[in-house]
Amino acid sequence: MSEYAIETEGLTKVFRSSWSKRELVAVDNVSIRVPKGTTYGLLGPNGAGKTTFVKMLLSCAHPTSGRAMVFGRDSREEEARRPIGYLPENHRFPTYMTGRDMLNFYGALSGMETRARQARIPELLNLVGLDERAHNLRLGKYSKGMLQRVGLAQALIHSPKLLVLDEPSDGVDPVGRKQIRDVLHGLEKQGVTIFLNSHLLAEVELFCHEVAIIQKGKLALTGTVQELTSGSGYRVESVGVPEALETELRAKAKSFAATNGRLSLLFGSRQEANQVVDLLRGNGCEIESLGPSRSTLEEVFMKTVEAAK
Amino acid sequence: MNATLALIEDTFREAFARRVLWGFFGCCTVLLLFLMFIMRVDVVAGALATVTIFGRSMPSQDLQNLVQQTQSVIAMVLYFAGMALSVFASAGLVSAMFEPGRIELLISKPVSRTHLLLGRYLGNVLVIGANILYLVIGSWIIFGIKTQVWGMGFLLSSLCTIFIFAVLLAVLVLAGVLWDSAAVGIMITFAIMIVTPILAQKNTIERLLDSEWSRDLVKVLYYVLPKTSDVSIIIRHLILNQPVESWMPVWSTALFGIVVLGAGIWRFQRRTF
Predict the structure, then answer these.
(1) Nearest CB to A109: which of B6, B13, B101?
(2) What is the pLDDT of residues A175-234, one digit of tens each?
């Protein structure tokens, strides 16, 4: 049994137009490994190839070359899809079904027995925050947020070991987002691997342990969120710094910013930062904050995308 | 088995969510009510005494003959008009399955693509088959009770009608897989329904054609395409208790259906969604 929930090797998808013979490389030689039980975010600008990548994992698209494995099985095998729960981005759920009917239908397709489905459906609908009234309401009458919730319930119906979520909180209000995040955190604690494809970088940063950024079909960057967002120095923030000292510190710092009487300084090493703290305290200045400098995932993303252009 | 039943049930749900199938069901019900209440047949000692429609007496004929002729008219209406309506109603059901956002979710389940397509296909045949059987069995019972004529030919004819629908549905499936379009599927199927009765007159057409290749083309088309017209003749023979001269139209039509459905499955398995 593989130690990875998802493993791709040189995964490539080329779309060929049958008329003009033009080629479009949607995914280009992407190799990633998603360890079991982790939360993994796939990032990239529109048209980067994220959805095609996910579709190859689910066997909706056939790779031109390379291969995708799910828990050690080739993704094209029927059995490889059994442990996967999937929520597509632009889903079109059958509007003639109620929430209960929909879960019953997809549960049956996932191989669940009738009795198991009947026990799990109300439990899941409640878990994703859909009240009793919504259980028997036709999906045509659901709001966008309710559809996302029932879509998530659908993905969870057969207790999957791997969840593949494409923009799970799209159209959901902030309270609902928090609720969805709590559900996902609960699953993470149970050891479920979560593969998240989202444009909401703050959400990915908050939720995922590892990320991959793809640009123009190629893997541009991969690593843990901690590694990618950690900076190359230490930041000291202080208030009430005398002008002469401020000038002296500006000269020593790698970068600085001063707003509303607050001075923010970046130093290359911990030792330098400690010396500056001593100096500031010796001059009676208040230390507001001190710690390793960090970039946001958005900054990392923008840098990576710009560099890949 | 669970998945197959779920796919069939889903097709039934969707079919009834689309009003056109309720229309089909309504037409069948109206016809059954017509037979039940409007047509009055008086039988005296096993012989037809009077036939009354809308309260007016019709010329009396041999009872068995009258029932068979009426059943034959119903079967032909069902075969041609009902078939056109069925194709129209089913085209949307087939192409709906390939809608983006829906097909990906179906494929992501641990069910083979062949299973998904055949489940939908079978569900569709059962939906239309249920409507056809409702009309045929309903009218067969009404005729039987009113006249005590219980010929099996009329019941068998319903199976032939369902069979031809299954073949035309295979064309809709192939068109759906290739082009995701209900409209293209309807056009191709209607073209087959229009062209094949013309091709059935192949002997007459061959006499009118000058060149050898055009005569060969007509022959090839006749043998390759489903023989809707010839099967309708077989249906009439079955109802009228006449011997069927050749079953070739049935088996060659079945072969066409199998090949077309096979092509649809083959393409569906290879397609990227």
Answers:
(1) B6
(2) 888 888 888 999 999 999 999 998 788 888 888 999 999 999 999 889 998 888 887 788
Return the DSSP state at B243: P
Residues of chain B with Cβ-Cβ distance to A113 below 8 Å are 2
Q: Is A135:A99 a contact under the CB 8 Å cutoff?
A: yes
Does the CB of A90 have a partner CB in chain B at under 8 Å?
yes
Report the side by side order of strands in the sheet with B56-58.
Answer: B39-44, B47-53, B56-58
pLDDT digits (tens, 9 = 90+) for B76-111: 988 888 888 889 888 888 888 999 999 999 999 999
Q: What is the pLDDT of residue B124?
A: 95
Nearest residue of chain A to residue B99 (CA atoms) = A92
Q: Examine the pLDDT at A35 and tell me if it is beyond 90.
A: yes
Q: Is A302 on the interface with B (CB under 8 A)?
A: no
Distance CA(B165)–CA(B228), nearest Å, equals: 10
Q: List the one residue out of B137, B135, B131 whose CA is nearest residue B21.
A: B131
Written as six digits, the tokens of B40 are 């009055």
> Global pTM?
0.85
Domain boundaries, chain B: 2-270
Q: Which amino acid is at B200?
A: A
Size of interface A-B (CB pairs under 8 A): 84
| Angle in degrees, 0-180, between the axes of helices B83-96 and B113-147, rounded to the nearest 10 | 150
A114 touches chain B (CB under 8 A): yes
Domain boundaries A231-294, corresponding CATH code: 3.30.70.3100
Antiparallel, parallel or unpaired: β A286-294 and A33-35: unpaired
Residues of B in contact with A82 (CB under 8 A): 110
What gap in Å lies between CA B78 and CA B86, rounded to an integer? 10
CB contact under 8 A, A59 and B107: yes
Residue B185 C-alpha, separation from nearest chain A C-alpha, in angstroms: 21
Among the residues of chain A, which ranges form H helices? Answer: 50-57, 99-109, 114-127, 132-135, 144-156, 174-189, 201-207, 225-229, 243-252, 270-282, 297-308
Architecture (CATH level 2) of domain A4-227: 3-Layer(aba) Sandwich (3.40)
For chain B, the residue count is 273
Question: What one-character DSSP code corresponds to residue A119?
Answer: H
Q: Contact B111/A78, CB-based, under 8 Å? A: yes
Determine whether the interchain pair A112/B273 forms a contact, defined as Cβ–Cβ distance below 8 Å. Answer: no
Question: Residues with Cβ < 8 Å from A56, sequence gap 6 or more?
Answer: A8, A11, A13, A27, A62, A63, A68, A75
Q: What burial class does residue B204 get, using C-beta atoms within 10 Å of its C-beta: 0-12 exposed, 13-18 middle, 19+ buried?
A: exposed
Residue B118 CA to residue A107 CA, distance in Å, equals: 19
Q: Running DSSP on this structure, what letter comes out for residue B178?
A: H
Q: Do A55 and B100 touch (CB under 8 A)?
A: no
Tokens of B198: 């013309």
Q: Tell me the domain boundaries of chain A.
A: 4-227, 231-294
**Chain A residues with CB inside 8 Å of B2's CB?**
108, 111-114
